[in-house]
Each structure stands twice: as C-alpha cells, then as structure tokens.
C-alpha cells in the first residue's frame, strides 16, 4: 500500500490494489476473496482508493460489499470484472445479485473499466427465450442498495445475467457517462433500474439492452435523466406498477434531451389492472425518435404474463404528464397511445410541439379515458384527448404549473 497523489497535488490517497491481495486477473482464477480482502482494507482506511488495474480480467463470484466505509472512498475500476458464466455454479443464496454494494455514503465509483455479467447461458435458460424453461430470477450485475451520496462515472456495464444496474433504497445518486450494453434479444436486461430511490441523476449515458433502457418503479421520486441515448431496448419506462394489486407511487420525473433509435417503445408508462397509487408530475422534453415502434405510450392494461390478465376496476392513477418537443419516426401507426382505465382515467396530459411521422404511411393517436390538451404543432392530431380546459388563455398557466412542479429537481453535488 502506497501513499500517492491521486487527482490533486494537495490530497494524498491511499491506493489499495486488488493485486496486492492476491488477485490474479487472468479471467480464470477465482479472485473473489482477494476482492473481499482488498475491500475490507480500503473501506476502513481514510482517503483510500480501491484499484482494479487495467489490462486484466478478474473473475469474481457473487459478493455483497458492505459499508459503511470512510467518507469519499473511491472504487477505481480500470480493468474488467467478469462473472462466472455457468448458472449451475451460482450460490443459491445470491441468486439475484452478482456485485452488490450496500450501506455506503459519499462513495465514488469511477474509471474506464468494464463490469461483464457473462449472461449468455442465463439468457438461454430464460422462460422468455424458451417457454419450456422454468421462470426463474437471475442476478443483477451491479446493485447499489441502501446508500446515499454515491457517484458512478465512466464505467461500462455489459452482458448482465438479468438487470444490468439497479439503484435501490438510495438517495442522492449521480450516474454520469456510463455505458450499458446487452444484446437486443437478451431477456429482462434492463439498463438502469431505479426502485424506492429519490434524488437520482442519470446523465450522458448510452444504453442498449433487451429490455427497458431505464426503468423507474415504486417509491421513486425526484429523478432527472439528461442526454440519454437508448437503443436497442424497450424505451424509457415508468413501471411496471400495480402488479398483484400492489400500490405504486412515482412522481417528479424529468427526461431532458434524449435520442431513441430502433426501440420497441419510446416514452412509456405501464401499469397493471388492479393496482393503486399514482404516477404524477412527469415531464419529457427535447426527445428525438428514430424508427421507434411506440413513441409515446401510456398503458394501464399492461400484462406481462403467459395467461391473459383479469379485468379489474382499480388502477394506478396517472396525471400531470407533459410531452414537449418530441419529434421523429414511428414504426407503428399509433404513434401516440393513451390506453387508460375507464374507472381511473388519465388526466392532465399536456402535449406541446409534437411531430411524429411514419416513413411509409400515416400515424394516429389512440385514446381511451384520457383527458388533456395540446398546443403548438401536434402531429398526429390528439383531438381524442377529452378535456374541458382547452381554452388557450389558460394554457400558459397550465404549462407554468408543470414546469414549476418539476423544475426544482436539485441533485447533490459530489
């Protein structure tokens, strides 16, 4: 362990190199214990940097790295961390996690390294790939759980067994310049999944997966996404929410500047029948679509099940959703779809400057039990939105309310 200058001439950092604890880095030898030992040392040492050196592949089994650690602890990943590729050898106690980080505060994950989940055999065993396979959960490549003031910058997360990157039960998390990559046909490989978390910023990220590029689910609020590239994948989704008659709450969400290419959905909110709770105060702006199947979609009849879902009257309430400056091309005729519950309609949907086209035909808007209004240029027309407040004189006030409800999203500087 050497005390060296790291990033500043005035701040000495203690470098804890996993190689110094016996890590081999040949992609074959099991380096799990070396990583655990290095973690324990670095976590308890002030001004420490846990270093995963470049140019090597470290095979690491399912591990939960626990905090609390010393403040401003840095995990510097320059090499590749690779998971075992054989599902049968996986520890059943860690069936849903691979690299899990728990109870951390003021911690920085950074570097140009790669976290590789070696997921191909997991995908082949999925019931979504082959209906004769049993439906089982698979690990998440990287999990940050029950943590605060965490920054993740520059890393590549790829080929996850299931979800690539999960942020759960956490607050004040910044994800910057991260790349997430899994094949388009890999099942349930969400790029960045945010659950039960608040004050999260996802910025300058490029995501291509076999499921949602970003998914935001129950208990999440004050989430801002900016400069996002998505494709392939299932779009940028809120939900699903309300499964098995559960309560789902998501609010204060902003997507500012995104480009989606070749995705099966664009901006999606999905809820199951029978749920309760609400989605509200959501703003999508400055989004470009290219060859996206469902550019704008609210679906309160979501049913990801091998059998048909039973009709139910209760639903997750959806309101105060703004779409502004959304342009591009749709693969499907229904470029905008608002499929809402008859008993719990969608309300206060606002459209401003929408221009969605289809290269080989016309597009349309579908509405069911959806209320709102549009102003500016709206293509396709959204006259199917029912509303009693289309008076142009109140539109500026309505917009101001939407902007004010989401403009205050402030994220902890790390």
Q: How do the strands and helices of this protein lay out in sequence?
A:
Elements: E1 2-5, E2 12-17, E3 26-30, H1 32-43, E4 48-52, E5 57-59, E6 63-66, E7 73-77, E8 80-82, E9 97-102, E10 105-110, E11 114-116, H2 120-124, E12 140-145, E13 148-153, E14 156-158, E15 165-168, E16 171-176, E17 179-181, E18 192-195, E19 198-208, E20 214-216, E21 220-230, E22 236-241, E23 247-261, E24 267-271, E25 276-292, E26 296-299, E27 317-330, E28 334-339, E29 346-357, E30 364-368, E31 370-379, H3 395-407
Parallel strand pairs: 2-4, 3-5, 4-7, 5-8, 6-9, 7-10, 8-11, 9-12, 10-13, 11-14, 12-15, 13-16, 14-17, 15-18, 16-19, 17-19, 18-20, 19-21, 20-22, 21-23, 22-24, 23-25, 24-26, 25-27, 26-28, 27-29, 28-30, 29-31
Antiparallel strand pairs: 1-2
Question: What labels would you give this structure?
Answer:
414 residues; mainly beta; Pectate Lyase C-like; 20-stranded mixed beta sheet; 3 helices; 49% strand; disordered N terminus; Glyco_hydro_28; repeat; signal; hydrolase; Pectin_lyase_fold/virulence
């Amino acid at each position: 362990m050497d005390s060296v200058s790291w990033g500043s001439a005035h701040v000495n950092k203690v470098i804890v190199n996993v190689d110094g604890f016996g890590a081999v880095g040949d992609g074959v030898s099991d380096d799990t214990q070396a990583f655990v030992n290095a973690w324990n040392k670095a976590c308890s040492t002030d001004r420490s940097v846990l270093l995963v050196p470049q140019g090597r592949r470290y095979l690491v089994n399912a591990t939960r790295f626990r905090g609390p650690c010393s403040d401003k602890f840095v995990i510097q990943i320059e090499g590749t961390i690779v998971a075992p590729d054989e599902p049968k050898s996986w520890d059943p106690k860690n069936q849903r996690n691979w690299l899990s980080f728990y109870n951390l505060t003021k911690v920085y994950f950074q570097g140009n390294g790669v976290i590789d989940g070696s997921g191909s055999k997991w995908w082949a065993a999925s019931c979504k790939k082959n209906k004769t396979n049993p439906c089982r959960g698979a690990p998440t490549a990287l999990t940050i759980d029950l943590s605060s003031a965490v920054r993740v910058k520059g890393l590549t997360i790829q080929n996850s067994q299931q979800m690539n990157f999960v942020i759960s039960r956490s607050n004040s998390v910044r994800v910057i310049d991260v790349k997430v990559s899994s094949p388009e046909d890999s099942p349930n490989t969400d790029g960045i999944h945010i659950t039960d978390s608040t004050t999260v910023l996802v910025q300058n990220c490029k995501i291509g997966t076999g499921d949602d590029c970003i998914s935001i689910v129950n208990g999440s609020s004050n989430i801002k996404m900016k400069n996002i590239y998505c494709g392939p994948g299932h779009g940028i989704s809120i939900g699903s929410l309300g499964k098995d008659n559960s309560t789902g709450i998501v609010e204060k969400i902003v997507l500012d500047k995104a480009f989606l290419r070749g995705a099966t959905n664009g901006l999606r909110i999905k809820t199951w029948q029978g749920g309760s709770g609400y989605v509200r105060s959501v703003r999508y702006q400055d989004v470009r679509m290219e060859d996206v199947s469902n550019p704008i979609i609210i679906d309160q009849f979501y049913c990801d099940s091998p059998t048909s879902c039973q009709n139910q009257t209760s639903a997750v309430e959806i309101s105060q959703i703004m779409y502004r400056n959304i342009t591009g091309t749709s693969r499907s005729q229904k470029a905008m779809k608002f499929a809402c519950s008859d008993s719990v309609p969608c309300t206060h949907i606002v459209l401003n400057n929408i221009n969605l086209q289809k290269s080989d035909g016309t597009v349309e808007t579908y509405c069911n039990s959806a209320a709102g209004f549009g102003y500016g240029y709206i293509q396709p027309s959204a006259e199917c939105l029912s509303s009693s407040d289309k008076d142009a004189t109140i539109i500026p006030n309505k917009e101001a309310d939407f902007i004010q409800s989401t403009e205050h999203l402030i994220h902890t500087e790390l």
